[in-house]
Design brief:
By secondary structure, this protein is mainly alpha-helical. Helices cover 58% and strands 0% of the residues.
Length: 117
């Protein structure tokens, strides 16, 4: 998973020309986003969305790593990376498959950065 995070971070750096990719793992969407219920946080909603696909590859990943990857996806999109660039960066490292990376990226947009819909 660290390889995937690093690959997506490299996309961010190449688009912004800087090495600062500080992550925000806050439990709220950055703008708009899903309305939180009393039972679930945004992170919980993100993980639940990923869980809907019953993908063993994603189920094997620690929740914190998936949440970090989700926020990194949003940072990459913020810098101008396309959805396809993010998927290629995350799956081109020998980490997640492109289908799994697409699931993470889509769930990230829905839950963490809906401004990229």
């Amino acid at each position: 998973m660290k390889k995937i995070l690093a690959a997506v971070a490299i996309v961010i750096m190449s688009l912004t020309g800087c090495a600062n990719t500080s992550e925000s793992n806050s439990d709220t969407p950055r703008s708009g986003g899903n309305t939180q219920s009393n039972q679930f946080s945004v992170n919980d909603e993100f993980l639940a969305d990923i869980g809907l696909y019953n993908t063993p590859e994603l189920e094997a990943q620690p929740d914190d790593d998936l949440i970090s990857l989700g926020h990194t996806v949003c940072e990459a999109l913020d810098t101008g990376a396309s959805f396809n660039m993010v998927i290629a960066a995350g799956s081109g490292t020998g980490g997640l498959s492109s289908d799994s990376m697409g699931t993470v990226a889509a769930s990230s947009i829905v839950n963490f950065c809906p401004e990229h819909r």
